[in-house]
Amino acid sequence: LGANNNSRGALVVFEGLDRSGKTSQCGRLLSYLEGLGHSVELWRFPDRTTSVGQMISSYLTNKSQLDDHTIHLLFSANRWEKRSMMETKLKAGTTLIVDRYSYSGVAFSSAKGLDFEWCKAPEVGLLAPDLVVYLDIPPEKAAERGGYGGERYEQLEFQRKVAQHYMLLKDSSSWEIVDACQALEDVEKQVKEMVLQHVRTCRKGKTLSYMWS
Ligand code: 2DT
Questions:
Q1: CA distance 3 to 104
Q2: ipTM higher than threshold 0.90
Q3: Closest CA to 212 of 77, 119, 73
Q4: Taking CA atoms, which of 38, 53, 76, 174 is between 20 and 30 Å from 109?
Q5: CA distance 136 to 106
Q6: Ligand 1 contact via 153 beta carbon (within 6 Å)
Q7: What pLDDT does residue 211 have?
Q8: What is the longest distance spanned by two Cα atoms in the chain?
Q9: Is the pLDDT of residue 3 over 60?
Q10: Would you state the pLDDT for residue 203?
């Protein structure tokens, strides 16, 4: 299954509310694709390891205060600083599984009341995912799962607004909405099937596109 000259990896993004199961599903998918012999990496945004990421982390854990626009642009900058590495990996044939991306950026900031189009603008030109897996769960159900860690956005009322804004971003071509109330194993099975299809299409030469397409 080694990459040939013109086959590229797929960019697969997971989105959803806090406690929707993104991180578990990303981990399971990673092992599955590795087991099939694919070249694959798991990424997440925010990437808290960079200096921009550290500013974001300090904001999320309430150690610092930032203007809503400022933090929005930092989240975007955190994706821009990873863009060229992302492109290099994809073109080298590595599939990237990404836990949160621009959709989180827009959904969370616009849920605070920032203008929707203003929120989308700094994402223009980032790589567009081949597939967005949206793990759909009612905010109340997610809250019942517990483990809201006490970070800034982990509150039921706010998560309700985020869910509404996510739905404004849904686009029929690359989004797959998965019922995240199902058992972990059932979600996993559906996710594997849809991701494999997209990995194959990318191998066959589907071209990379850019946000917001
Ligand atoms: P986790 O690290 O637990 O996923 O939480 N967020 C994320 C934004 O507001 N904008 C963004 O661009 C991104 C990627 C979602 C990170 C928190 O940060 C929010 C939850």
A1: 31
A2: yes
A3: 119
A4: 174
A5: 17
A6: yes
A7: 97
A8: 49
A9: no
A10: 96
